[in-house]
Amino acid sequence: MGSKPSNDPVIQQLQLLLTGYGYNFYSATNQARADDQLVRERASYHLAQASDMLARLRANYHNRFIPPLTRANPDPPQEAMAQIREMESVQQTLFRHRIIYSWHARANPGSHLVALPPGAAPACTVIAIRPGIGAGQ
User: Fold this and answer.
1) For residue 60, what is the enclosing H or E element?
2) Of 36, 50, 37, whose CA–CA distance to 97 is shortest?
């Protein structure tokens, strides 16, 4: 089968199927879109892994540094509770970023910028994800 158009309807349908009905899988725009989705998916996965690891570390820290409460000692140590609250805050931030990445990758596959809600990340308000560009501040 050559690349010339054919009069045979089966051959015509096969050629349309192989060429994606006019969709160019190899254009620079479509490759950039696929790369962008892949980067967002991997970023979301790694943020989820970090959040899960932080949850395990927080539980281990709680078990190790916060003793069971007794009548003699009814309040947990404030220093340890401050650390626990900080870990929870970081974990929630990671979770929000993961949700934003995964949602944005599905909703806007051609977009290259993710605007984070105010207060989501103290040092970063916009993250640029394009080949050759790192996280912008």
Assistant:
1) helix 28-65
2) 50
